User: What shape does this take?
Amino acid sequence: MENFNYHRPATVLAAAAMLKKSKDGKYMGGGHTLLPTMKQGLASPTDIIDLTAIKNFGGIKLSKTMVTIKAGTTHMEVATSKEIKKAIPALAEMAGKIGGVHVRHKGTIGGSIANADPAADYPSACLGLGATIETNKRKIEADKFFTGMFETALKAGEIITAVHFPIPKKSAHQKFPNPASRYALTGVFLSQDAKGKVRVGVTGAAASAFRATDIEAALAKDFSAKSASSVKIAAKGLMSDMHATAAYRAHLVSVLAGRAVAAAK
Assistant: This one.
């Protein structure tokens, strides 16, 4: 690991200013991706701007139609929130399955979404619920946020400050986890709103989280587990690695979507 300058700003404005002044600075939330990559020599930032000391950077707010989670909120806080368990129980359940206990106590929702790991859980929830990601400069629809492997619509200097999740009529999360890392080999987050519109977010199967529009169309006609699991997902464009082939992941998308429908509440 190379030497670096460490900063711990108290405001979002100060954090953005520090990044702008640095030669090659990086924001850090829980540090679960940045620190390991630095240890492996895959990243050597000149400056680390730690966002965990920013005032009022964490917290959960509930309205009649929306759950707002500030970026610094940990996975454990999401998993144990009474408000989230009542409004979007699938979101709390999903957060409770991220990594291990230590990861859940330290990792943050903002950091996870900004990092956009192709196997992370929150991206599928953002897409599956139609979330809006708020930064220090603008608001971005989830459908336009995840652009590739570890790539997002965030511009230089932008900091995620909050995520707004519409409260659905029903929702569910299902994933096939890697037994070691607990990252999703494939994961599905499904929701249905009061008007019957269905959204299905998928993670772990491709280079970036995406919506399974074919399954959404099938469920719009028949909201049943059989309808979801019978949709054939194309393997082309999906990932193949030592853990699973593209064809296997394609199969998992349909299977997990069917299970999500059955579990939706």
Remarks:
- The two ends are 47 Å apart (CA to CA).
- The longest strand covers residues 184-192.
